[in-house]
Amino acid sequence: MPRFAYVNGRYRPHAEAAVHIEDRGYQFADGVYEVVPVDDGALVDEDPHLDRLGRSLGALEIPWPLSRANLALIGRELVRRNGIRDGLIYIQVTRGVAPRDHGFPAKARPSLVMTTRRRRPLPAHLFDVGAKVITIPDIRWRRCDIKSIGLLPNVLGKEAARRAGAFEAWQVDDAGFITEGTSTNAWIVDAAGRLVTRDPGAAILSGVTRRALLALVAGQGITVEERPFSLAEARAAREAFLTSSTSLVMPVTAIDGAPVGSGRPGPVATALRQLYAAHVDAEAGRAP
Amino acid sequence: MPRFAYVNGRYRPHAEAAVHIEDRGYQFADGVYEVVPVDDGALVDEDPHLDRLGRSLGALEIPWPLSRANLALIGRELVRRNGIRDGLIYIQVTRGVAPRDHGFPAKARPSLVMTTRRRRPLPAHLFDVGAKVITIPDIRWRRCDIKSIGLLPNVLGKEAARRAGAFEAWQVDDAGFITEGTSTNAWIVDAAGRLVTRDPGAAILSGVTRRALLALVAGQGITVEERPFSLAEARAAREAFLTSSTSLVMPVTAIDGAPVGSGRPGPVATALRQLYAAHVDAEAGRAP
User: Fold this and answer.
1) Where are the alpha helices (DSSP H) in B126-266?
2) What's the confidence (pLDDT) of residue A1?
3) Per-residue confidence band for B220, with pLDDT thresholds at 50, 70 and 90
4) Nearest CA in chain A to B24
5) Is A28–B152 a contact, with Cβ atoms under 8 angstroms apart?
6) How far apart are CA A201 and CA B105, in angstroms?
7) How many Cβ atoms from other residues are within 10 Å of residue B88's Cβ?
8) Between A124 and A198, whose confidence is greater?
9) Would you give the distance in Å from CA A80 to the centre of its chain?
């Protein structure tokens, strides 16, 4: 079956999907993106993803390329055409094509690119043994709350993790606090049994899975603290885990080669993983 | 006359010059660039620009897309085809096209895009009255020594300058020191008559014009200090100016609305502008 991408108003065969070399996304990283999971053919957390897309666009003063409703329609059509049952929709919006000049162009129409991808299976048994993370200095810009395509530091961090045999790299700020992973949010269960994850702000992207999990946890009798936590705290934590739209809730069992807690997925991460799976089931329309 | 761009091995009409939507430059800002001035049909400071391209590529472990000599040949051919007498060559190299995944792809061939542009005249009398700059917090990443295409903070800074009626925005680090402009290097002549510009390091891009000017100044009897200078120092300076391949040596006569020194281009900036112009004359093969 041919695979299609949507590019500025047209469904194009993926291999021929192209943008102009003076698209400001290509020359300036002047754009934003979202990744919406698809599960059993249904979009998971569609509204929060599109809400965040709107916030990112607003922060950069890029207009919506078309209405939010039409954007969602195109996503669904792409899922249908590409026969995606489990996977994701990738949405990228840039400020558009204009002769190269740093400031905003007087007239440019935003570019819209959408693709889909089938779910890539994670390494076998990863959830059973837990993921390893390394830590690296957070060298990113100061507006990580904007989901921009300026991901070069994240690329370098993920590559460093891979070379170290790790799943992810947790980034550490100048004060010694963990901000987040290169494409995931970071969590710990501290020595007192409290669930801790960094408070939203310019230092992290407020993850959709992160927020969904916080909402699910409310009323479960678990104390939650949204605050910075240090690398030392993480090393001494009972448990650690990470969240993202594609990793869901993933136990972290080693930080920089040292085991976290027992060195095996802990009870809280395991319970939250099940809690989140039930949320995805509901989004996908599966009976509980 | 049609205008051409060079894209991955082919000379293409500019309007049809395109890259794949999964080029990592478009999805991750995973690439670097250079701008080489063209004066009287000659490339200015070709070697230092290509040296720096090599350093940027090396820092990101992106191979040269083709030999340095061939890259220069293509630049000259593009200048010829596009009939550029005074202008610039823009060179962009990215890690190439691969299915979206943060880490480096196992096999991707680097993408190479080259364009040319005619010189855009600067606002009339700008050199005579001097440029105004504003100051903004430096929110960029920690590897500004790499000339990456991840320029979104620079875009936002330049736009802020434009809205304030200024030519450039000087970025200020957490310690109160000026790093550089969004696309230019920053200089002052301090109260003691010393020429001061930030030392090269991860906080700034080591500008080719900056380095050429430092070489020209050596032996002119001017004391030069490559060190951080504060916003307070800049405000109290006798003179200020900025440098870049397209602005050359441009006097700065106002910072955040307050005049620098006399509020008019000073003698040092004017002399250095002439010194640099003679360097460009030599590069262009014009008789002194």
Assistant:
1) 126-129, 152-163, 208-217, 231-235
2) 63
3) confident
4) A26
5) yes
6) 31
7) 24
8) A198
9) 23
Angle, nearest 10°, between helix axes B208-217 and B267-283? Answer: 110
Question: Which stretches does DSSP call E strand in chain B?
Answer: 4-7, 10-13, 18-20, 31-39, 42-43, 87-94, 111-118, 131-137, 168-172, 177-181, 185-189, 195-197, 224-226, 229-230, 239-244, 248-255, 258-259
* Residue corresponding to tokens 């009939």: B83
Distance of CA A154 to the CA centre of its chain: 12
Closest CA to A31 of A158, A140, A151: A151
**With an 8 Å Cβ cutoff, are A139 and B142 in contact?**
yes
What is the ipTM metric for this complex?
Answer: 0.97
Torsions phi, psi of A50, nearest 5?
-75, -35
Rounded Cα distance between B273 and B288, Å, is: 15
Q: Which residues contact B157 (CB under 8 A, 6 or more apart)?
A: A102, B136, B169, B171, B182
Q: Is B147 a catalytic residue?
A: yes
- pLDDT given at position B2: 75
For residues A231 and A171, give the distance between their C-alpha atoms in angstroms, rounded to a whole number. 9
Give the mean model confidence (pLDDT) for residues A245-251.
95
The two tokens of residue A6 are 């949507």
Residues of A identified as active-site: 147
Residue that the structure tokens 């007087």 belong to: A106
Report pLDDT digits (tens) over A11-51: 999 999 999 999 999 999 999 999 999 999 999 999 999 99
On whether any CB of chain B is under 8 Å from the CB of A159, the answer is: yes
In eight-state DSSP terms, residue A223 is: -
Minimal CA–CA distance to B61: which of B142, B141, B146, B144? B146
A11 touches chain B (CB under 8 A): no
Task: Say yes or no for a CB contact (<8 Å) between A115 and B21.
Answer: yes
User: What pTM value is reported for the model?
Assistant: 0.97
Quote the tokens at residue A49: 């993803």
Strand ranges inside chain A, DSSP E: 4-7, 10-13, 18-20, 31-39, 42-43, 87-94, 111-118, 131-137, 168-172, 177-181, 185-189, 195-197, 224-226, 229-230, 239-244, 248-255, 258-259
Integer CA distances (angstroms), B40 to A182, B46, B79, B279, in order: 46, 14, 11, 13
In the numeric block, which tokens belong to residue A207? Answer: 């993850």
